[in-house]
Structures are given as structure tokens and as C-alpha cells.
Amino acid sequence: FTSSPTRPGLHIIHIAAEMAPVAKVGGLGDVVAGLGKALQEKGHLVEIVLPKYDCMQYESIKDMKVLDVVVESYFDGRLYKNNIWTGTVEGLPVYFIEPQHPGKFFCRGQLYGEHDDFKRFSFFSRVALELLLQAEKRPDIIHCHDWQTAFVAPLYWEIYVPKGLDSARICFTCHNFEYQGTAPASELTSCGLDAYHLNKPDRMQDNSANDRINPVKGAIVFSNIVTTVSPTYAQEVRSAQGGKGLHATINSHSKKFAGILNGIDTDAWNPASDNFLKVQYSASDIDGKIQNKEALRRLLGLSSSDFRQPLVGCITRLVPQKGVHLIRHAIYRTLELGGQFVLLGSSPVPHIQREFEDIGNHFQNHEHARLVLKYDEALSHLIYAASDMLIIPSIFEPCGLTQMIAMRYGSIPITRKTGGLNDSVFDVDDDSIPLQFRNGFTFVTADEQGFNNALERAFNYYMNNAETWKELVQKDMSIDFSWDSSASQYEELYEKAVLRARAASRS
Ligand code: ADP
To answer: Which of 69, 225, 258, 506 has the most crowded Cβ, counting Cβ within 10 A?
Structure first.
């Protein structure tokens, strides 16, 4: 319980609401696992703290056991007991927090979307720090993520440093500024923070409602390092249009703010060893792609008569950010152009889910289009492998992982030039980009015409010159999207912050 690092390198503790593959809704889960593993490989001691959700993928946790200590943590004026479980996920040590609170905070059958999310995650953030204090951990870096664990930053400086948990610098990564978790200021009091003191314009007060507090703003103000998940998005959020109300806050803390492009987990996403595929393949032997295409078509009941018929995939949460109107349009346009379309997606927004269910029903027995409206990890792997192209027509995209996964599987991305897509997909026809970096098809304007132009160019390339297309597939599959270089950038930020702290404590 109180093990301390014995090797050189930093002691880094991630406090997060997601970690792939055990508890994942989107990219955040991939980042916690992928960055954690890469930092561990670089010789750092990395630990993760997660809620113990009822709906976790328990089979991916090794050696899970409950500790014989109970951590008592403050909330709503009293102390609540928490069971602490440990286990190993992807080779990383993880603490799982199981509150003994009558609210059954993490027994809801889903990670988010509950009426009391603010309460659930402010509670969790506090227990996570309480655990570190009681376990006598002396981390160099505590890394929190998104609004759910943004509370860690003010809790650390306001409450836990005075209690003696004072070895760490705080890093906060915002994976998407759309989600800020604002709530009436009084709700902050439950986790022990002083709402009166923090509901100030230069602290946690929401920039557009002076009776609400904003956890993401609080983490920007109270962290030593603030990052987001791509250089282009880091620029976009500094403008009034992209910052979702936080641009002024980000600008006034710009010295500690950086954009680092996510990597992908190249072990989990490897077509040469992927057990979800019908046939494994690699850049030097891409024939397996055709057999996976055949397998997917059979699985979904699509026509298999022409192996050269282009297959367009889309794997996404169906939310406005992802350009749902362009996704819908893409289905029809692909069919008009003679292609096949497979959508794997699900929506937390009921009217969007219904709309796509209607479209799905319309194409139920269609030979060339299929909509699978659920979350399905196994199917996602097969679609990446089987498709010739993957569309990502996002309105905004902090980083985006699907374009990188697609390229690793030889599916050519068709993307809108925004956020992390702009940092990872370069148009094959863009003369301003050196030839060796051009890897996909991009468009700027988020309308049907803009999208059509990119899709049509992709179809022309595919149809007219099989050899050039094959070269493009092989080139994309060889690009290094591993976490290695991104993790080095985090490492550098961590090390600088730790050195600054040591220098400050000496002077
Ligand atoms: P976001 O985090 O905004 O959802 P990202 O592109 O960063 O978008 O990450 C999406 C991740 O979730 C990828 O790993 C993708 O394969 C996966 N994903 C999205 N929708 C589904 C789905 N319906 N089924 C399986 N995996 C999905």
C-alpha cells in the first residue's frame, strides 16, 4: 500500500475517469493507458487511480484484489469509507476506488451521463488525493484529466498540500474543451473546497455565469502544467470561437499551456498481431486487407461481388462535434459514387441516435451500406482493417485517434482540417507539404461541397491507379504514431516543472 519508487525517473500518478481497455468511452481512455505505458517504458514509475465502476471490463484486470485498508474521505460534512482495490492493467499498477456511499456513485451501468456527475467525480477526485496522502505517496507529478478529475488541482493546493501531500507538481490535460462540468457554485462545497473563496473571476468562476463554478477553469488556474491534445487545437482554443468561453483564461495562463499530439497504442492497434482480424497483415504484405474486407462484407451481409469496390468506413461517437450532418451525407454520396459504406457509431444524444436508427433501418437490407449503432471494440478493429478509406468530417477535433488508427491499418483518412486532424493528415494534393508527409484527403469548409471534393478525389485516386493507391496505403501504414515521441514531450514538461519546484524550494 505504501510502496515508494526505488528506481530513478519520475513518480507519476494519473487520476482519471477512464483507462483503456477497462473503462473507456473515448480517446481519454486510450491516452491514459498509452501515455502511461510509454512513460513506464522510459523508466518512470507510473500509477493510475480510477473509480471502480460496476461496468468495467474486469477480465482485462490482472491480480485484482481488495486491500485490507479503508480510506476515509470527507464529503458533504462527514467522512465516508472507501474500499481500495489494486490490479494491473496493460502492465500498469492501478488503484480502483470503491466508495461506500449510499449514492452508489460508480454502480450506474455507465461511466457518465448521470444527473449527479459533478458530485460523483468531485467525490472521486478527493478520495484519490486522500488515498495518496494516506498511502504516504511522494509523487513528482500528479496528472489529472478533463473536468471529472480537474478538481484534483484546487484540492491539492488548497487542502492536501497543507495536510502534507506536497511533493508533486500538477499537470492537467484537457482532452476536449466542450466539456467543462460547470455547476452552481454552492456544489463545490461538498468536496471541501471553499466555494466563496474560489468563486472569483481569477479562480474557478465560470466566465459567463458568476454564480457557477467551472472545474476546467479551476484546473487551468491551479495546475503547474496545462496541456491539450494537439498543437492546432491549442491554438484554436485561444480564440473566442474555439475556446468555449475559456479563451481568456487560457490566454492569461499561456506560459504553462502546450499542445501535444496524442499517440496511439501501437500494441493494441497492430494489424500484424490483431486477433480481432480475419487475417493479419503488414505494410510489406497488404493482401490480408482484401480478406478482411471480404470477411466484414460477409459479417454485415454486404455484397462481395467486386473486391475493387471502395469501402468507406466511419467509427465515431455520433455527437455534433463529429459533423453528424456530413456523416449522414457521406453515406448517400458514397453510394452515388459506387462505393460501400459502413458506419459504427452510437450516440448519447437521443434524437441523433433515433435519426441514425431510421437511416439504419432504411438500409437494413441494402447491398452496399450498413449502420451498426452501438459500441463494439471487436468490430471497430475489423472495420479499420477492411475499409479503404475512413471519414472524419469533424467540426472540431481536439486530437482524434481514428485517423491515426486508420492509417496504421492502411485505411486512408478523409478529414476536415481542424485540431489534431490538421496535425496528422496532410492532403496528397497539397503542394505546400513535402511529398513524404502527404497521407490523406482533407477539406476546410464544413459543408457538403467541401466534403464531396475530398471524397471524390479519394475515389478518383482509388479507381484510376491501383498501384499509386497501394503505395499510399503502404506509406500510411509505416508512419510512426506510437506514443514514444509524444511521451517524450510530456516527460520534458514534467521534468522542467519538477526542476523549477526543486529550485524554488532551495531558494
Ligand atoms: P473521441 O474521444 O472524441 O470519441 P477519438 O477519435 O479521440 O474521439 O477516440 C475515439 C476512440 O473510440 C477510437 O479508439 C475509436 O476506435 C473508438 N470508438 C468510437 N466509437 C466507437 C464505437 N461505436 N465502437 C467501437 N469503438 C469506437
So the answer is: 225
Is the model's pLDDT at 492 over the cut of 60?
yes
| Residue 2 pLDDT level (bands cut at 50, 70, 90) | low
Determine the structural domain holding residue 126 and report its residue range.
11-263+485-506
Claim to verify: residue 454 and residue 475 sit in the same structural domain: yes
For residue 323, the domain's CATH number is 3.40.50.2000
Kindly state if the Cβ of 323 falls inside 6 Å of ligand 1.
no
34 lines ligand 1 (CB under 6 A): no
Check pocket membership of 30 for ligand 1, CB cut-off 6 A: yes
Residues whose CB is less than 8 angstroms from the CB of residue 322 and which lie 6 or more positions away in sequence, other chains included:
316, 392, 393, 394, 395
| Phi–psi pair at 340, nearest 5 degrees | -115, 150
Place of cell 487475417: 279
**Ligand 1 close to Cβ of residue 188 (< 6 A):** no
Distance CA 461, CA 28 (A): 34
Q: Which residue, chain included where needed, has cell 468555449?
A: 244
**Residue 351 grid coordinates:** 434524437
Residues 398 and 489 in one domain: no
CA distance 134 to 286: 53
Question: How remote is the CA of residue 316 from the centroid of ligand 1, in Å?
Answer: 5
The 10s digit of each residue's pLDDT in 112-166 is: 999 999 999 999 999 999 999 999 999 999 999 999 999 999 999 999 999 999 9
Contact present, 179 and 48 (Cβ < 8 Å): no
User: Same domain for 254 and 340?
Assistant: no
The reported pLDDT for the residue numbered 186 is 97
The 3-class SS string of 76-89 reads: CCEEEEEEEEEEEE
Residue 334 and residue 428 in one domain: yes
Phi, psi of 15 (to 5 degrees): -115, 115
Residue nearest to atom 22 of ligand 1 (CA): 375
